[in-house]
Design goal:
The complex is a heterodimer of chains A (102) and B (166). The longest helix of chain A is centred in the C-terminal third of the chain and has 31 residues. Chain A starts with a helix and ends in a 13-residue tail after the last helix. Chain A is built from three helices and no strands. Chain A has a single domain, classed as Helix Hairpins, CATH 1.10.287.3510. Chain A is elongated. By secondary structure, chain A is mainly α. By secondary structure, chain B is mainly α. Chain B has two domains: 112 residues, NADH-ubiquinone/plastoquinone oxidoreductase chain 6, subunit NuoJ (Four Helix Bundle (Hemerythrin (Met), subunit A), Up-down Bundle); 41 residues. Chain B has six helices and no strands. Chain B is globular. Classes of the chains: A mainly alpha (102), B mainly alpha (166). The interface between A and B is large, with 69 and 79 residues.
Chain lengths: 102, 166
């Protein structure tokens, strides 16, 4: 059976579900960032697969490169925030860092 | 017997399996290291789709940059020696049910949609055309991207340094 567009979309969908599960259930800030990376990767797979199977030009690949770039910026800023939270609260459990609620 | 579907299924299994370890592991170090498998597998999928430049960028930025950043953050914020449950999760069962239904619906809709048939697949290097398009059609987003990266760089330094007052 030949590999078609649907195969790539299924891989992307499963990856998205696992990333969403990670973001929903984890209480560790770094793990939540890992879940966000999984979601961005699944979106990238869809971009590249659709660009390969529909038009055949590189529009989707360029979007994927932009997403990768923004993911790098997001990871740098997010982990800097996590380190700042760790210095203040001495934990990175997101339920401990909710003093803004009070 | 074609070899390429077998390789595709292996790469997809590597990607999804590593992502499952990321989602379910109780030790955050295991989660961080299995991200390597996911990112590598996604790079392999890009190679399958004929996107050689994106695959290279994926390896360079995700494996070489983001993964190392995440490992640094894990090492800096955990006492690795007392490695019990370092990666707490809450509400797994309801989340599993919701996500299961969600993935089922997604796959069902993917299967029932009549997708366009693939054109004849030509595997040519894409680097030249991507470079040209970055400097013609996508010039403004390209320049904006550099400004965003500069802002992120300065912001990360400002956020992460220690506050020193005399």
């Amino acid at each position: 059976m030949a590999i078609g567009l649907a195969h790539y979309l299924v891989v992307g969908a499963v990856l998205f579900g696992l990333g969403l599960f990670t973001v929903l259930t984890r209480r560790n800030a770094i793990s939540i960032l890992m879940g966000v990376e999984l979601i961005l990767n699944s979106a990238n797979i869809n971009y590249v697969a659709f660009s390969h199977y529909s038009t055949g030009n590189v529009d989707g690949q360029i979007y994927a490169i932009f997403v990768i770039m923004l993911a790098a910026a997001e990871a740098a800023i997010g982990l800097a925030i996590v380190l700042a939270i760790f210095q203040i609260f001495h934990t990175i459990d997101v339920e401990a860092a909710e003093t803004l609620k009070e | 017997m074609q070899l390429s579907p077998v390789i595709f299924y292996l790469i997809a299994a590597l990607t999804v399996g590593s992502a499952a370890i990321v989602a379910f592991s109780r030790n955050i170090v295991y989660s961080a290291f299995s991200l390597l498998g996911t990112f590598g597998g996604v790079a392999g999928i890009y190679v399958f789709l004929g996107a050689d430049f994106v695959a290279g960028v994926q390896v360079l930025i995700y494996v070489g940059g983001i993964l190392v950043l995440i490992l640094f953050a894990v090492m800096l914020t955990h006492r690795i020696a007392d490695a019990q449950i370092t990666n707490r999760s809450v509400g797994r069962i309801p989340a599993l049910v919701v996500i299961g239904i969600f993935i089922f619906l997604l796959i069902q809709s993917i299967r029932e949609t009549p997708w366009a048939k693939a054109k004849e697949i030509v595997y040519v290097p894409t680097t030249t055309i991507i470079g040209e398009w970055f400097l013609e059609r996508y010039l403004l987003p390209f320049e904006l991207a550099s400004v965003v990266l500069l802002a992120a760089l300065i912001g990360a330094v400002v956020l992460a340094r220690k506050e020193t007052r005399e």
